[in-house]
Amino acid sequence: MILGSGCSEVAKTVSLAADLWNIVQVSYSASSPALSNREAYMSFFRTNVADSLYNYARLAIIKHYGWQRVATLHENQEAYSTAVNLFSELLATNGINLTTSESFTVEPGEQIDNLKEKGAWIIFGNFQEVMARKVFCEAYKKKLYGKNYAWFLLGKYSPRWWEVDDNSTSCTSQQIYTALDGYILTDSVPMSLYPDRPTISGHTSAEIAEVFRTRAEQDGLDDGHVTSYASDAYDAMWSIALALDQATKSPNDDSGNAAGPLHEFSYETRETREHFINTLSTLQFEGFSGSVSFTDAGDREGLIEIRQVIDGEETVVGHYSFHGDEQLGSDLNITDIQWPGGSPPKDETTEKIVFSTTPRLYLYVAGGLCAAGVLFASICLLATIILWERSAFYRASPLFLVLGLLGCIGMYVSIFLMGVSSDVIGPENQVLLCTVRSWTMTLSFCLAYGALFAKIYRAHKLLVSKANLWKPGGHFPLMFRSLMSLFLFCVIVLIVWTVWFPIQRDVVSSGNEVR
């Protein structure tokens, strides 16, 4: 049996070669979903959680918050592409809409633009640490962060990875952190949740962790970073030991094939290899990282830890227990996620049309002023009617005064109607209101201006002809015809406009605002 390799690409090559020599391989950190393909990697096992299994934790989170629209962004590498493809299938199976799936090779700028253009609010990312700095630099520039967004990434990044200065971005570490602050990650549990529970070795996880920290300090290692791999490596070695121990005790496997003692092992025979595979497939024990067992594909059925970056530090906010059920037979426990807006973001924008209308205060003020004008014009109109028969009024053509005052009253009314909007009378009456105030303003203007023009024109003719201004004459019919001609012309224009070119209601967007 072989322990390793930790790198997925190397593990693939080793597994293909090891199978030719009937050797079983157990890895502690190779996470590529491709290694779950039993047809290609028949004798591969791993004690770390495969990247594809994080998809179930992500799906559980999506269902927990009731999201129906999500997006993905991944780097163009086989490990990430395979995991995202499996995630897309899982989303489709569970009725979740994948808004867009973006991929990039070197620079993610265009893909970030696409995410924003397509309204992606819940984003799941699969990319390595170096690319993560580029992604969040672009997210900062394009404002793809804040209370309306939720970013989900894989774990395994180094502590405070955004502070690493590798000259790969044009952003400062603070700008990158501004964009990623509050992001959520899924990772395998670095240590059993029950530190005082005895493991297969007889020691508790707390005791093993203390030994590890002591050795790490002696060797000058960063225990916070190494521990996430150390527990899986520890359990991988125990898995191999238990399989070897079982091989010495069980002369036959479940199928009845002879396994033979270990000292009779041969690279040419497949019986011992099959025995190891069967033993590991049914193996279950309490390890440093928790309960250890394997799926039929050789993947670890481990506990997944959900963490969130809060104030620059990763804080545990929940756990997910995977049971291998395609219909999400799982146990999700989320407790302390801190959302920037105080509540989980929406998975899409809610379109709400808010009409821009005249403030009621302005309408009331304008209405009061118009009412004052109507009152004053009405008083003048009443006075004109009362004093109609007096010589001074009669010679001044009181009929035109009355028509002019009526036009002024109509203009005041039309000004008030101009301020009345759909929120007062209802959208269904908006077209009728527009038509009425157009007619009112036009005809009122014709009366008011026509009467004034007729009287001015009369005065002009009398002054030019040097006639007696106070002597009644034949000027009245000409004035009346001029006024009625203008009025009739306006009526004809309004009828043609109303019948053949009616007013239509159209909604024009003046911009969007995200709340």
Automatic annotation (TrEMBL):
The chain crosses the membrane at residues 361-387, 399-419, 439-457, 478-500. It is a multi-pass membrane protein. Residues 2-309 form the Receptor ligand binding region domain. GO terms for molecular function: G protein-coupled GABA receptor activity. It holds the Pfam family ANF_receptor. One of its GO terms (cellular component) is G protein-coupled receptor heterodimeric complex. GO terms for biological process: gamma-aminobutyric acid signaling pathway. Residues 368-507 form the G-protein coupled receptors family 3 profile domain. InterPro entries: ANF_lig-bd_rcpt, GPCR3_GABA-B, GPCR_3, GPCR_3_C, Peripla_BP_I. This is Gamma-aminobutyric acid type B receptor subunit 2. It is found in: Cell membrane. Keywords: Cell membrane, G-protein coupled receptor, Glycoprotein, Membrane, Receptor, Signal, Transducer, Transmembrane, Transmembrane helix.
